[in-house]
Amino acid sequence: MIFIDDRQDKMSVDSDFEKIIEEVILTALKEELVDKACEISVIFVDNDSIREINKETRNIDRETDVLSFPMLDYPKGKVYKDVYLNYNFDASFFNEGDLVLGDVVLSLEKAKEQSEDFNHSFTRECCYLVVHSILHLLGYDHMAEDEKKIMREREESILGKLNITREV
């Protein structure tokens, strides 16, 4: 189950845009071998809101593009498909039968700014940020250079499956 909650008024969000975001999430999950029904919340916010969340949760007092709040713990260097593919989850990992992966908080205002900076579409930037965040929910990280390389390859591979290129 994918929950989308639009809590901002800077960018217009219609059902077509929400469908694209849902398709991106489902493709990312499929490509990462997630074979269980999942729950993910996606919250659209503006720069002021994400700055406040960033300050409260990470003690970083600045806006950012996307924040990920995974609900599953992963051993260092492991991702969902390495750890949980054959894992027997107990009831605490589920909500009404769905495996709770976590929350994505996306600043649509920041995504718009970045799409202009990178000279590609707003939709492409949002899709990239959503894939990036879903990979975080699945245990990927980019703090070390080798992790960053793996994560970037997965992001581009997933977006490629959807034919979402930098020119879109």
UniProtKB/TrEMBL annotation:
Q: What is its EC number?
A: 3.1.-.-
What's the cofactor?
Answer: Zn(2+)
Cofactor detail note = Binds 1 zinc ion.
User: Gene3D superfamilies, per this entry?
Assistant: Metalloproteases ('zincins'), catalytic domain (3.40.390.30)
Q: Name one GO biological process term.
A: rRNA processing
Give GO cellular component annotations, separated by semicolons. Answer: cytoplasm
Keywords, alphabetical: Cytoplasm, Endonuclease, Hydrolase, Metal-binding, Nuclease, Ribosome biogenesis, rRNA processing, Zinc
Q: Tell me where in or outside the cell this protein is found.
A: Cytoplasm
Tell me its family.
Belongs to the endoribonuclease YbeY family.
- Protein name per Swiss-Prot or TrEMBL: Endoribonuclease YbeY
